[in-house]
Hints:
There is one protein chain. The chain has seven helices and five strands. The longest helix has 24 residues, at 4-27. The chain is α/β, with parallel strands linked by helices and 210 residues long. It has helices spanning 4-27, 65-68, 76-87, 117-134, 144-153, 160-163, 191-207, and strands at residues 53-57, 96-99, 138-142, 168-170, 173-178. It has one domain (4-207): Uracil-DNA Glycosylase, subunit E. It starts with a helix and ends with a helix. Helix 3 (76-87) packs across helix 7 and helix 4 crosses helix 5. The radius of gyration is 17 Å and the shape is globular. Iron/sulfur cluster binds next to helix 4.
Amino acid sequence: MQIQPAVEEMIVSNQELAFRALALAARDCDACPRMRGRRRVLGAGSGAIRARTLFVAEAPGRLGAEMSGIPLHGDQTGKNFERLLAAVGLRREDVFITNAVLCNPQSPSGTNDKPTRAEIVECNHFLSETIAVVDPALVIALGVSALAALSRVERHGLTLRLHLARPTRWFDRHLAALYHPSPRTRVFRSFGEQVDDLARCLQSSVSTGP
Ligand code: SF4
């Protein structure tokens, strides 16, 4: 009985070491030409490496994670996301947050751009390894880029139109689809509906079990 805490500590430590190695590898990655000089957003600010729930968004925002180093933090999208978390009683330190790509893609004029298919492919091993290290029970895709990236990690048939906020078994965990929490989403999905969507994901993945 007495060795249990020591064993647990060792497991946590191995998980932390694996995560640090992954973050260091990301920091040195130069696979995507237009990401040169951008921040690789994966590190202590990403959340709890033992989190039960892992969110995947699209990409670090120019005025958000690119500046703060914290996924979904520092811009209007980050504020929306943090309000959503608070509305369901979660704190950032309860969850883990990452993106389909770890760097901020910008258009030639310097605005936020969508990641290209090639960038999503290049970055996919970081997403896959992050999920393996954190080992969450529930992965929540925030938007279509996240769904596309997660389909490369393990194939799934989820779409926002047909499977919104309906967690589905996805190998040895659950996967759910939600809209990206950008200000644009409020045009067709109210803040209250987005809170209900998130609450339903969290609740259904608990009731359907591990
Ligand atoms: S987006 Fe991913 S694969 Fe591309 S340079 Fe950044 S860390 Fe590397």
